[in-house]
Specification:
By secondary structure, the protein is α+β, with helices and mostly antiparallel strands. The chain has four domains: 120 residues, 3-Layer(aba) Sandwich (Trna Endonuclease, Chain: A, domain 1); 100 residues, no CATH class; 133 residues, no CATH class; 83 residues, Arc Repressor Mutant, subunit A (Orthogonal Bundle). The protein is 47% helix and 18% strand. Strands 1-2-3-4-5 form a five-stranded mixed β-sheet, sandwiched between helices. Strands 7-6-9-8 form a four-stranded antiparallel β-sheet. A four-stranded antiparallel β-sheet has the order 10-11-13-12. It is flat, with a radius of gyration of 28 Å. The mean pLDDT is 88.
Length: 464
C-alpha cells in the first residue's frame, strides 16, 4: 500500500508535470544523499526545483540538503503536515518555502504557477483529482475487459489494439463480392478471432462501403455506438497514451514541440468524438494539388486549448500545402510507429480506395504538450505570408470568394495580397489586382505564375 510520504511525493510530481516541469524522485546528490523530488524546467539539463517531504522532525536535515548540498536549486520547497515545521516559515523566508501538501491546500501549486510564470493557466489540482477518479474507474473497466478476454482464451493486447484502431479510423480487412454462380464471397486477410468476438460482443460494427456486391463492398471495422464500447475505447486510448508518453516526448524533442503542435492543429479534419478530439489525415501521393478548403473547427478545440480560429486556419493551409505535406506525413508515421496513432487503408463511400488514413487521438496527445508555449514559438507572420502566396496560387480568379474567404479566415488583409499581386504585375505575369468585376486578376503566363508563387513559398519556408 502507498504510504502517506509516497502519496505526497506523487502529488507533487503530478503538479510539476502539469506545468510542464519534468519531475523525478529520489535524486542523488554528490554526497550520496537523496532529494525526495526534483524538477527540471523546460530546456534545462539540471534540476532547478528541489522538494523535500517532511513528516517527522527532520527539518534541519532537510533544510541543510536543500540549502547546502545543491546550490543549483532556484526554488527550494519543504512540504509538511507538521504544525511545528509550518510555524518556521518566517525563519526560512527567502531561502526555503514551507507549505502544506497539495491535497491540503493550494500553496504548493501556487508556488509552481508563480515560478513557471503560468499563473493565468487553469488550476491543475481539480483536474488531477478528477483524473485520478477517472483512472480508478477506467482501471476497473479495463480489468473487467481483460478478464473477459482471458476467459475466452483470446489475446488481451491484440483485443485492446483492435479497439484502439477501430476507434481511430477503423481497420480495413478486405471486401465482399458477388460472382455469378458463386454467390457472395469474402476476399481479404483472415480476421482474427479477437475481432470476430468483439464484433459479436457489439463492441465493433462492420462497415460495408460500396455501390453494390457486384462491384464489391468493403469490410471495415469501427467502434460501435454502444456506450460501453465508447467507455472502453477511451480507457484503452488513455492507457496507451500514458504508457507511450516518453515516445511522444522523444518525437517532440526531435522536431520541436511547436512544430509538432503545428502539424496536429493543421490536420485535414479535427472532430469531436465520445473519446475526445481526434484528427485525421488522408495521404494520397497521386492526388497532390494546389487547392484549398477550410474544414469545420470544433468549438471544443478553440475553447479547451485557447487557440484562435484564425491561427488554426492558418496552420491548416500551411500543413496541407504540397511543399509541407510530405514532412507532415513523416511525423504522422512517427506517431503510428510509436503506437500513438492508427494507419489504415482509406475507402470512400463508393468503396474506392483513396489513400492511407492516419488518425490521432488529439485530446490525449495535446494534453501532454505545452500548447501555450508552442503557439508563442510559432512564427505566425511568416506563416501568414506563406499562406498569402498559397491562396493566390490556388484560388480561381473567376471566383473571387476563393480569394476573399480564405484571407478573412486567417485574419489577413486584402491590402497585403494587393502588394503581392503588384509584384506579379511588374514582371508581366498577371494584371494588377481587379477590385471591381467578376475576377480578381488576369493571369497572362500560367506557368510563370505558378513557378513564381511556389518559389516565394519555398523562400519563406527556409526562414520558418
Amino acid at each position: 500500500m502507498q504510504t502517506r510520504h509516497e502519496k505526497i511525493k506523487r502529488d507533487c510530481m503530478d503538479i510539476l508535470e502539469c506545468y510542464f516541469v519534468t519531475a523525478d524522485s529520489e535524486f542523488t546528490l554528490p554526497t550520496g544523499q537523496r532529494i525526495d523530488v526534483v524538477g527540471y524546467s523546460p530546456s534545462s539539463n539540471q534540476p532547478d526545483i528541489g522538494i523535500e517531504v517532511e513528516l517527522t522532525s527532520n527539518l534541519s536535515k532537510d533544510a541543510q540538503k536543500l540549502l547546502n548540498e545543491m546550490k543549483e536549486f532556484k526554488l527550494k520547497i519543504i512540504v509538511t503536515e507538521n504544525p511545528e515545521t509550518l510555524k518556521m516559515r518566517e525563519l526560512f523566508s527567502g531561502k526555503i518555502e514551507i507549505v502544506q501538501p497539495p491535497d491540503a491546500d493550494t500553496s504548493f501549486e501556487d508556488l509552481i504557477r508563480k515560478y513557471t510564470n503560468q499563473e493565468n493557466k487553469p488550476r491543475c489540482s481539480q483536474r488531477l483529482n478528477a483524473q485520478k477518479l477517472r483512472i480508478t474507474s477506467e482501471s476497473s473497466l479495463l480489468n473487467d475487459f481483460e478478464n473477459e478476454i482471458r476467459e475466452q482464451q483470446l489475446d488481451v493486447e491484440l483485443a485492446k489494439d483492435i479497439i484502439f484502431k477501430s476507434t481511430l479510423g477503423g481497420i480495413y480487412y478486405g471486401y465482399y463480392q458477388w460472382g455469378r454462380g458463386k454467390g457472395t464471397g469474402y476476399f481479404g486477410r483472415q480476421k482474427e478471432r479477437e475481432v470476430l468476438y468483439l464484433h459479436a460482443r457489439h463492441f465493433l460494427y462492420e462497415d460495408k462501403r460500396g455501390r453494390n456486391y457486384e462491384t464489391g463492398r468493403t469490410s471495415i471495422y469501427y467502434i460501435s455506438s454502444e456506450q460501453e464500447a465508447y467507455d472502453l475505447a477511451k480507457a484503452i486510448i488513455d492507457e496507451r497514451l500514458d504508457k507511450n508518453k516518453d515516445s511522444l516526448q522523444e518525437i517532440a524533442e526531435k522536431y520541436g514541440t511547436h512544430y509538432i503542435v503545428m502539424m496536429l492543429l493543421g490536420m485535414d479534419s479535427i472532430y469531436e468524438s465520445p473519446n475526445g478530439l481526434a484528427g485525421g489525415v488522408i495521404d494520397n501521393p497521386d492526388n497532390v494539388n494546389y487547392w484549398l478548403y477550410l474544414p469545420e473547427i470544433p468549438r471544443q478545440l478553440i475553447e479547451q486549448y485557447n487557440v484562435e480560429r484564425e491561427i488554426i486556419n492558418l496552420l491548416h493551409i500551411y500543413v496541407n500545402s504540397p511543399l509541407v505535406r510530405p514532412k507532415a506525413i513523416e511525423i504522422y508515421k512517427e506517431f503510428t510507429n510509436a503506437n500513438l496513432a492508427n494507419k489504415t487503408e482509406y475507402y470512400n463511400s463508393y468503396g474506392e480506395r483513396s489513400g492511407d488514413l492516419y488518425a490521432i487521438p488529439l485530446t490525449q496527445v495535446l494534453d501532454k504538450l505545452n500548447i501555450e508555449d508552442a503557439i508563442v514559438n510559432i512564427n505566425l507572420e511568416n506563416l501568414r505570408q506563406y499562406a498569402y502566396w498559397f491562396i493566390i496560387r490556388s484560388h480561381n480568379p473567376l471566383v473571387p470568394e476563393t480569394l476573399y474567404d480564405p484571407i478573412k479566415a486567417i485574419g489577413g488583409q486584402i491590402s497585403d495580397v494587393e502588394m503581392k499581386v503588384e509584384e506579379l504585375f511588374k514582371l508581366g505575369i498577371t494584371s494588377r489586382f481587379i477590385k471591381e468585376g467578376p475576377s480578381t486578376i488576369a493571369i497572362y503566363e500560367e506557368n510563370r505564375f505558378r513557378e513564381f508563387c511556389e518559389q516565394k513559398m519555398r523562400d519563406i519556408l527556409e526562414n520558418t
